[in-house]
Design brief:
Blueprint lengths: L1 H6 L7 H8 L3 H13 L3 E3 L6 E3 L1 H14 L2 H15 L2 E8 L2 E8 L15 E3 L3 H9 L3 H10 L2 H5 L5 H14 L2 E4 L6 E9 L5 E10 L5 H24 L5
Antiparallel strand pairs: 1-2, 3-4, 3-8, 4-5, 6-7, 7-8
Length: 244
């Protein structure tokens, strides 16, 4: 429920939408939301009756940030990518079987993709960040994951098992992932993985934009920029410092 509320910030979400999204009866969801409100985890807007994130989550997030936050290292690199390419640049983290966008920076080019934004959550294998991370898992983990999800039902036939595995293979060959407008037509993205100190694929850097800005001739240029930026960021995180 908290994830669903957070996914709809800043506009909020009503009880019926949450119940539908998580598959619980509406009365149960209403009761649990009431309990969460009592401890400050969620709040209810008086003018719309929509649920929003509560102040207690901010407090817990601030505590967790001291252990887990790496955005201080990622922010300058995300900005550099946006300036160098003119496209929108992003930094996402893997959480379980999802990726969540943590940072966003608009480039100078006036037309933008609006698929990603801070707080946006997608399953692995969907959008370029999720595809890049999925491609760096071992084959058994990928197979088990695809056995447990049905991406095609939610995101269309282009996200069927065989199609995802084909893009995984392509990503492995190139080192970076390409999403050719599969979530929103005409909205393209490319991503490269950032590794943690155990050399596990934990984060991703992404560039997004409109289709004509991501022509095949430009893939190598953008892919190289992403891979070099991802390597730099992986190194900075491993060293525990943002200095060059």
């Amino acid at each position: 429920m908290l994830r669903e509320v957070g996914a709809h910030e800043p506009d909020g979400v009503n009880t019926t939408q949450i119940a539908r999204a998580i598959g619980l009866p509406r009365p149960t969801v209403h009761r649990l939301l009431g309990s969460l409100r009592e401890v400050g985890m969620v709040e209810r807007e008086t003018d719309s009756d929509r649920w929003v994130v509560g102040s207690e989550l901010y407090v817990l997030g601030a505590v967790a940030a001291r252990r887990h936050d790496v955005t201080q290292y990622a922010l300058p690199i995300v900005r550099e990518l946006a300036v160098a390419t003119g496209e929108s640049a992003f930094f996402s983290v893997r959480r379980g079987n999802d990726t969540i966008c943590l940072l966003a920076e608009d480039g100078a080019f006036p037309l933008r993709s609006h698929v990603l934004h801070e707080g946006a959550r997608f399953p692995l294998g969907v959008v370029s960040a999720g595809l890049a991370i999925l491609a760096h898992l071992d084959d058994r983990e990928i197979a088990d994951y695809l056995d447990a999800v049905d991406l095609a039902t939610q995101f269309g036939p282009a996200h069927g098992r065989d199609a995802v595995l084909e893009r995984v293979a392509t990503t492995r060959r190139h080192g970076y992932a390409v999403n050719p407008g599969l979530v929103v037509e005409g909205s393209w993205g490319m991503a490269a993985v950032v590794f943690d100190v155990a050399e596990q694929p934990r984060w991703a850097l992404t560039l997004t934009g409109v289709e004509h800005r991501f022509s095949p001739e430009r893939h190598a240029e953008l892919g190289d920029l992403l891979l070099r930026a991802a390597h730099t960021l992986s190194t900075r995180i491993a060293r525990g410092t943002g200095r060059r």
